Structure formats: structure tokens, C-alpha cells
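Section 5.1 Outputs to date
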Amino acid sequence: MCLSFQVKSSKKNEFGKAPIYARITINEVRTEFSLKRFIEPDKWINKAGIAKGNTEDAKNLNAHIAAVRTKLFQHFNRLLEADQHITAEAVKNSYFGITEKSKTIVEVFEYHNQQMKSLIDKDYAPGTYERYCTALRHTKEFLEYKYRVSDFPVKQVNYEFITEFEYFLKVVRKCAHNTAIKYLTNFKKIMRICLGNGWIDRDPFINYHFQLKEVEREILMEHELQALADKEFATTRLDQVRDIFLFCCFTGLAYSDVKKLSKDHVLIGIDGERWIKINRTKTDTRSSIPILPMAQSILDKYANHPKCCADKTLLPVSSNQKMNGYLKEIAAIAGIEKNITFHIARHSFATTVTLQNDVPIETVSKMLGHKSIRTTQHYAKVLDKKVSNDMALLKEKLSVLKGSAKVRVA
């Protein structure tokens, strides 16, 4: 900290005296304040920052300046020992007893979530908002578990805080690795907001590296899709859920998109056939999907369903939680030993229905509404059966060369 005392000659009063200011400079940024003391400019030593002479007035003024200097350095050292972010303004505020209220994690997190809530269906999907609400809840639980507090200053978040948070999510909350990383990613966004607003001076995640683990996605094979289609169910609810699930297996629509699917989303495509054209709820990207016969037969089946007529939708879709619960029951009845969830339909479309039947991955990506082929690669698997078929074609092509090839032996 650089400290100097200066006379403002341009601000002389009616008695020809000028005010004395203390100037604090830290990292080339300065602030100043008046000492509420005045002196004639010619009685001031600029370089030393003190009054000239040995008069009683000069001695009293210099004593006051020395006291201010001592107090300012005391406040500077106090901030230093408290490991706080030190600025010229912070030292001045500390000297005058002005305490700057530090931003806190929960305060910033809650404000972020409030803004996100108001932007649902504009910039964010409802599911994204719910995930940040869950991330905030886990953050509050961690603060109570680790620090026995309801909130925490953002300036005190460091590398240790983040590693302890990850441990809490994985061990105490028993989150899977990828789930824990997603919550940490949500928390990282809050820290970036703090950094951008100048509430913290460095990113606590700067040396912290995490990566999602590759997950082996479950899909339904052709014979399993056929088993579902052929199975007759005793109850209407299971029959409906099976139909909607199969519809998504043959269109690639996600739950949130099939739930809002209406007549407005079915258009005549470039080939004169019926297509589904819909902006995805999650990313707002366009999905363009030709309607396959299986999907069309399901739409026809529910064309006059009371719930569809009331909601102006094409299918009677229940809540995601209910659908997933019924799917487990359906799988057991159909003899499918896989943990079926609604999202498996999208993966099955990408792999079994399209890629496995030689639909190019670029086409699959457009139908799924992905912005990048890399995202599609997480959905669509190249199965052993396709590798076998492709290699069989290669063997056939190479066999043509077999008869004409001549091997010369030296």
C-alpha cells in the first residue's frame, strides 16, 4: 500500500487555506478522503506530506497526520491477516468503519434460480430449472454438514471447498459420479457469475478438473421391440404407456417433446409424406422426422382419445414418473430383462431403428435435433451385428480380387 498526504490548492477557502487529503494507492488503483484539516499551501512540504515549522498548529497537524497514517496501516494489516481481498477502497472503508457485505453462496444461487424461473420456456426448460433447484438444495445440505452454517461467503470458496463438496455428493448423498459432476457443474456456473461481477478475484475451479464417465447406454433390440408390440396387456394404462414408448422408439422424440406433440407439429414433408417437425424443449433446435408406419398407426389409434381432444395433443401422455414406473411393469410382463426408462426409446431409435438399418449418422443427428454429431454418437451405438454385416460386404468385394491376384515367390 502506498500512502501520501496532499494539499488541494485548487480548493482553497475564503481564508486562503486548502484542504489536506490522504491518498491510498494499491495496485495502481487509488482513492482519497479529506482529513477535515486546512493549511496555507506555502506552509506545506509536498514531498514529506507534513506542515512546515515548529509552531503549535504545525505540531498538532503533523501529529494528526501521523495518527491517520498509523491507523490506515493498521487497517491494511488487519485486512491482510484476515486474508480478504484488499483494495484502496476496502482500506478506506475499514478506516471509517464501513463494512462491505460480502456476497454469499445461497444468496447468489437463489437469485440465479429466480431469474432462471422467469425465463422458463424462453431460455430454459423446466427440467433445467428443477436441476438447479436440486443443486441448491444439495449445496445448503453440504454447508450445514461441513461448516454448520446456513450460508457461506463466496470469497472463501476455494479448492478445498470444492473437493469436500464432491466428497459429500458422492459419499454422503450417494450420488453416482456423473450425477455429482453435473451438480458441481451447476455450482461452477454460480462461481463464474461471482467472478464476472467482481465478487471474487479468482476462479476457485481453476485447478480443479473433472470429467464425466462414459456410460454404456441401454437400448432395446429389434426382437425386444417386436415383443413389446405383440404383447397384449390387460389394463388400458399399460397399453397406452407401451404405445407411447414404442412411438418414441420409432420417432426418437424425448418425453418433453412427445408430451406437447400436437397437430401443428405434423406437416407434409418434401417427399409428400407426413413428417413431425418440432423444436426440442431442451435445446430449442429443430427436429424433422418422417413418420414411420408403426408411429402412424399409434397416432391413428389415439386420434379421438378424450384426453388428446381435451389437451389438444396427439397422444395421452402421463407424467414422466408414472410412465417410468409403468415401463418397469411392462418390461416384466413382456419378459424383457432390462431396466427400461422412457429415455431408452430415444437411444433405441438412434441405434436399432435407424443406424442398424444403414441410416447415416448425419441423418440420425438431424432427426434427433442434435447440434453436433458428437452428441449423436452418445446415443447411437455401432453393434456387433452391423460390424458383421459391413465386414461381410467387404469380404464379398475382396473375393472378386482373389481369383485374379497372382503371388510371385522369389
